[in-house]
Amino acid sequence: MVIIETPRLILRQLELEDDSFVFELVNTPSWLKFIGDRGVHTLNDARNYIRTGPMDSYSRFGFGLLLIFLKGEDIPIGMCGLLNRDVLDDPDMGFALLPVYEGKGYAFEAASAVLKYSRNELQLKRIVAIVMRENQRSVSLLQRLGFVYEKDVILPYSNEELLLFGCKLLN
């Protein structure tokens, strides 16, 4: 199901058939370094990740991570969307691209569209993003999107200090 369309991209809900792409993306060096190992070591693990992560989120919250495609091509290039974390007060924006598609403006285009969708369709007042301090590309992208650094946080399931950015969508 297509959720968002931009000049160059299509964002749609993830399906179990996206298992090979998810397997590839979550095992890239940048994902493992900046997001972490999600235990996706087989295609079955990838299907379980899709089922218990994005698909569960769609049904429970009405949003989740979306698969990013180049418009006019049947090639997935990344994921972008919102996550609901019990430990955060607001939905959390996440994004990741396969390395070959980084640096081409796709993450900014997808994330901008997710922000607009979050405000106009989901009527969210605010979203946040968490990022590792050393992930300067993501920090820069968040700042370009209008996110503002608020504080350092440590999530309960990690001992890693993360930067929390917030973005007000509605008054």
Automatic annotation (TrEMBL):
SUPFAM superfamilies for this protein: Acyl-CoA N-acyltransferases (Nat)
Domain (N-acetyltransferase) ranges: 9-170
A Pfam cross-reference name: Acetyltransf_3
Gene3D superfamilies, per database record: 3.40.630.30
Source domain of life: Bacteria
GO molecular function annotation: acyltransferase activity, transferring groups other than amino-acyl groups
Name of the protein this chain belongs to: GNAT family N-acetyltransferase
Organism: Xanthocytophaga flava
